[in-house]
Amino acid sequence: MQTRIENQATGTQIIVVRPAAETGGAFTETIIVLPAGAQGPPLHLHPLQEEHFETLEGILGIRVGNRTVVVPPGRSFTVPPGVPHSWFGVGGRAVRCRAIWKPSLHIEYLMEELTQSANRRKSKSPSLLEAAYVLHRIRGEYFLAGAFPKELQILLFAILALLGKSFGLVKAKRN
What we know:
There is one protein chain. The protein has 175 residues and is α+β, with helices and mostly antiparallel strands. It folds into 2 domains: 3-102, Sandwich (Jelly Rolls), CATH 2.60.120.10; 107-166, no CATH class. Helix content is 26%, strand content 32%. Helix 2 packs antiparallel against helix 3 (128-137) and helix 3 (128-137) crosses helix 4 (150-166). The model has no long low-confidence stretch (mean pLDDT 95).
């Protein structure tokens, strides 16, 4: 069964086509729909996962380190584990692409909870405390690139997650 995750503020949709439960955790396959002008996540990295993109419609841009890779329809690009990246539509047009994370790890939990947090806020972005809680729950799987060293991010996520939970400001569920 497909799961649709939608950010109500941006219209960005993530359709989970093949969840981890179907693949034994080997991979998670999604279709991502970015409306014209919408952006993907901030510059980040997955130390333990590769992220494979195949553009179906529009033109996908992938920032990889200091360069931008343009992926037109019918083409694909794989971001190796540990490489900082972000993605976006090129030319102000809508984009539809397939994205596959190998192995799955907790990518579905991450996408679902951060999107639900953003929707609760009626915002493009999740709350800082809920994002910290989710990232603390999956520690070591996802980091913001260029922000703080990984070790400091792990510590900050733990402190913010504890504060958020203690004050009842985190609605995200445990994975």
